Amino acid sequence: MTAALLWPALVIMAPLLLGPLFALGHESLKPFIGGRIGGNDAGALTLDNYAQIAAPEYVRYFLDTFRVGLISSAFALVLGFPMAHFIVRRAAPTLRRVLIGGLVGTLFLSLIVRVYAIAMTFGTNGPLSGFSRLLGVRPSSPDGAELMVVLGLMNTTLPLVALTLIGTLQNINPRLEEAAMSLGAPRWKTFFQVTVAMSLPGLLSAGIIAYAFCISNLVVPMLVGRGFILFVSNLIYFRFSEVANFPGGAALSIVMMVVSVTLFYGLLHLVRSNWQEAGK
Fold this sequence. Notes:
Elements: H1 2-28, H2 48-53, H3 56-90, H4 93-107, H5 111-122, H6 130-134, H7 142-170, H8 174-182, H9 187-198, H10 200-215, H11 219-224, H12 232-242, H13 246-279
């Protein structure tokens, strides 16, 4: 009965979701001729657009995308978990509502505004410009641009991570922590072996959400990357909008989607394998 109720939704949503992907895949196989918009419909289908992506110069953009996205997601998790733990376990009810409302409120603030706020705060002339110098990084250098991208991505993903982990921690019975400490476990050991261990599924979900948002982000590297840090999404944007190379942009999109899905399932398989080994 339940499966029968799903069929109408699947019949409606499948063309809406899969249709654009098939159109994108077909466009990626068309030859591109400079000076025109889109692919050549009269030409034979070709894999030349994918062959161009295999060139070594494209590797840097993929590496920057996944590396910077991973760093930003990791920092968001490291900061988001203590924040969520404080809201759930330590904050008074009134303060808890205020903090959760603040996290939700940041999601309604324009991404461009938040990124420019980061640039003005940590940039060359910002009040916290010394933060980059404290790390031994010049704000105007390529490393300074990467730091700005990391801060921008972390700022945009931190509320999502914290809100996701708040729901996870609310489902963990605090009496389990009290029982561990009553048996002699120190507070730090209880935190890591009980609270963090039982939050692993939520941490994985929050990390996947943050990572997916980071590697698909267009605005942050475009605004604060200063040409030193460009993501694959920026290349796709340039292909479609600047040079009207729709086949090249479509090929980049398909490759990015395949790599991202493969990476996601690879990480998921690795985590599940480790959990199964730990449970034996």
